[in-house]
């Protein structure tokens, strides 16, 4: 199969295993491209992409922009903080104004859950979800799985623990869907107040003891505490959180085995992870950044192929 089964990338929940395989196969090719002296391919020379970011983002926005440029697409960047959204313009109006400029693909990050799904039903363009509220962040989960596959050979049968603020994390939900779809075992670990009640219904194990979780896993994906999404205190203090759920070199050295460390970024160094862990040889955090460009190139390229048909 050389085509995605979906028309948009709204969430991992809508993908099949064959879609993930196709994205990874395409990303393998693009990873080779971006490591050449000339890092560009003319694949999307006739495609226009709009990046609509209604929420602040540095890494994801830059990663998408770079992916689009590597594919030779034309790019429109839209930041809500400097736009008519502040004057009360609706999401549909904003999108339709952009579409009247003959845009083919919209990459969108939005604070509201379901915004990308809503947009996909109302506008005639391919939609790529770059994060909607606390719902999903599909390209992050894809690049995380791609990085695990690159490091460990395959995702199937591997034990992955996601540590930290599961409740507010779209990365956690997308990762759970992606990892389960590929046959991995998944555990979540964090304070009880930051683990959603429904999470076990997704087929994951819940563990509140960090050392037990680390001894169980092959890979630890460490999330930051999303203070900006919290309207109440979910734990007594940052210091206490770090003592119970922060990962440092001493803790890693005390384990029975060497595990792989991941982090979607941005890192709060010294809170969920210390610098000597983030920069250690068992950390693949910088590989994740590089793989992010290749995976996003693959997603955009595959959706653009549907437009050209």
List the helices and strands and how they pair.
Layout: H1 17-34, E1 48-53, H2 59-70, E2 74-79, H3 91-99, E3 105-110, H4 115-122, E4 126-132, H5 138-152, E5 159-163, H6 170-181, E6 185-189, E7 205-207, H7 210-216, E8 219-222, H8 238-245, H9 249-253, E9 260-262, H10 275-278, H11 285-308
Parallel strand pairs: 1-2, 1-3, 3-4, 5-6, 5-8, 6-7, 8-9
SS-derived structural category: alpha/beta
N-to-C SSE string, H for helix and E for strand: HEHEHEHEHEHEEHEHHEHH
Taking the sheet with the most strands, its summary is: 5 strands, parallel
Shape: globular
- Under CATH, the homologous superfamily of the largest domain reads Aspartate/ornithine carbamoyltransferase
How many angstroms separate the termini?
Answer: 15 Å
Number of domains: 2
The residue ranges in which pLDDT falls below 50 over 5 or more consecutive positions are: none
Number of helices: 11
CATH architecture call of the largest domain: 3-Layer(aba) Sandwich
Strand order of the largest sheet: 7-6-5-8-9
Strand content: 5-15%
Q: Rg to the nearest angstrom?
A: 19 Å
Q: What is the CATH class name of the largest domain?
A: Alpha Beta
Instruction: Give the rounded overall mean pLDDT.
Output: 92
Q: Examine the coordinates and then state which fold CATH places here, giving the name of the CATH topology of the largest domain.
A: Rossmann fold
Helix content: 25-40%
**What's the count of strands?**
9
Short description:
The chain has 309 residues and is of the alpha/beta class.
Description:
- It is a single chain.
- The chain has 309 residues and is of the alpha/beta class.
- The chain folds into two domains: 12-136 and 289-308, 3-Layer(aba) Sandwich (Rossmann fold); 138-286, Aspartate/ornithine carbamoyltransferase (Rossmann fold, 3-Layer(aba) Sandwich), CATH 3.40.50.1370.
- Helix content is 39%, strand content 15%.
- It contains eleven helices and nine strands.
- A five-stranded parallel beta sheet has the order 7-6-5-8-9. Strands 2-1-3-4 form a four-stranded parallel beta sheet, with helices on both faces.
- The longest helix has 24 residues, at 285-308.
- The two termini are 15 Å apart.
